[in-house]
Amino acid sequence: MKKLILSMALIGATTLAFGQKKVVRSAEKNFKSGDLAAAMSDIEAATADPETSSDPATYLLKAKIQTKMFGSDSTNTEKTLEVGKAALGTYLEAFEMAGSDKTAGVGEEVYEADMVGVPDNLRPYSIETLKNTAFDKAIDRYNENDLEMAYSFFDLAGEVDLTDTTIHYNAGFLANDLGMYEEAKRHYKYLLEIDGYNKLNAYYSLVQIQSGQDKDPEAAYETIMAGRKDYPEDKILAEYEIQLLLQLNKMDEAMAQIQEALKNDPNNASILLRSGYLKEQSGDIEGGLADYKKAVEVDPDYFEGNYYTGALLLEESVKMLNTLNDLSDAEWEVQSPIVGKKADENYKEAVKYFEKALEIRPDNTEIMAILFQINTRLKNTAEAEKYNKMLIELKGPNWMEDGE
Fold it and tell me: Which pTM does this prediction carry?
């Protein structure tokens, strides 16, 4: 009798297990036929039952069903995205249950290469299928100018594959454009980890965020140092390094880098400008002015070069005139015409640079005001009135009272 009872129990258990496996087979049949609601209902029952819930193949099938549901939803909304995220979670659960081995069994099936372009019934519906589907949805949203959802789908695709440079570059670019700077940095940092990839644009973008939005020049400088190690000949990274050294007030290091950069690129206008700035700050006014002027010679349309040259000439004129204040009346009578003439020479030279700067940026009211003041000083009445009219038109008749 005991043997009979035991046999009946075994038969019952076998029947139950067979019944649950039948549910899994039903889920697979519905998945292949496209009845995804029925397939999901079946597979949910299978994952809830102790007899089939411990089998990684059950979760792989669930992930495939979720991926097919994700792909079949053409609305590409936040709701669609949630289905894709759920599919990713299920794939990873199946992979972990299978021993996290990509070379055998369910683990190998999870990461089976997707065959894009083949009939639907031949696609493996692996995690790679999820990645490619998410990428396609990102492109669809981007083409419809729905940039937030485009980013979200790129981000999902990137979670599947941290080494896909196209996905992470697009995700980083969109996140940066949307002001999602932490997300942008995350994607750019993924790119920096990939061997053989041209990382220059990732370095440029990451440095700009760290030094700009984050206001963290120390972090930006660390990134630059890593970039300079990877690309020691890159001129843009060399310029960024100099700029950051100036921000960090590391003047000696900045000058050393400037001199090294100018050896390799003697006609780089922006580096010449920085060289001039450092010389000016150290008290070498003539050297600074010479570098500013050379920057303009190299690039006549360089706004900063023209502006800095004019500003330094103007500043030196003011200093000259201020020295007269400390003289006795007798000394003033002698020195005033001499100093005034030299100051006017600087003013006249400064006009050329400020006029060019205004030509480059024709709406710059600060430069208009400077040109008004210089021409007034030089008694160029017609020119002074020209700039007065321009300022009245742009800022109103009381522009002088507004701090100009």
Answer: 0.69
